[in-house]
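Re: weekly structure request thread

Next one in the queue (370 aa):
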Amino acid sequence: MTITFFIIVFSVLIAGFLAGKLLGKRIHYHPIGGTIFNQLMNFNRLHHYMTDLATKHKTYRLIAPFRSEVYTADPANIEYILKTNFENYGKGWHNYSILKDLLGDGIFVVDGEKWKEQRKVSSLEFSTKALRDISTTVFIENAVKLAGIVSESSFSNQPFDIQELFMKSTLDSIFKVAFGVDLDSTGGSYEEGERFSRAFDDASAVIAWRYVDVFWKIKKALNIGSEAKLKENIRVVDEFVYKLIRNKTNCVDLRRNDILSRFVKLSEADPKYLRDIILNFVMAGKDTTATTLSWFFYMMCKHARVQEKVAREIKEINRAENVSEFAANLREEALEKMHYLHAALTETLRLYPPVPVVRKNIFVFLRTAP
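Done, posted below.
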């Protein structure tokens, strides 16, 4: 047993040495910033913890059992990975194994041809004027509903969680655009939709926890703890989504412009394929929009002068007497004139990006000279 262990260790060392020789370079290791256990201890303030590390080292490593992760905040590295040499950096098996139970083979999980196919179809569909128009209409309608809730709470002097309201309102908008369904999580009138919303949020939280939980595969195999809860939440999500897919497949209204109807019209797609695409759209649109709005209002409250300038610009361009009139007057041309609002939102995105970490795996190809 001891001899076998040393043979394995020696083989790994020789393989690493040969890889360095074949690449023709001396392997450079970035400084160690911490371990996965540091991430675990700082999980409730993870983005702040990662930002603190990035101020010390533009590029650093975090050590985990059986693996080492490299994190970079260097603009040159980010451009190289996400643009210049994009093809060489995929999501990889590690990310796929963590995300697939909830997101399946959706665009945020897969690589290669599957990714290219979904990217192509999605880009084509989102570029259509009909979908852009329905998206704009839906978001304005839900914004008016949200403004009514906030106004009512303000007049009654009742506290409320604005991020939770943004999450619910954004989910309602995404669901209307994606499925053509009024989820009404802000009003709470659709009980089945409420169950889906809670299950999806809880499942997303457990999936994120997997990145720092070194025992998640064991818990999944034994169906205990957080993994048992995840399994139940995914069951609720699937039950709701597959029911919607069946309804769409059995009765496709050619006049409908929601994303699911459009994908069903494109081909006789497999229900699992449709399920994965739609849940990835929901994941992409819900939290990103809601967290950006939350941080934007947080920054407006901290910087009263900026808040006044944003409000003044909006009032000068859209001279409405109430929320309903404001929404009716809101057009793309008016939004394009709101330069200061655009700048404030852009600065919010810079300071508090909705997707602060992009995980990539490098595909290494060792080639010898001919």
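The first helix runs from residue 2 to 23. The mean pLDDT is 83.
Next request, please.
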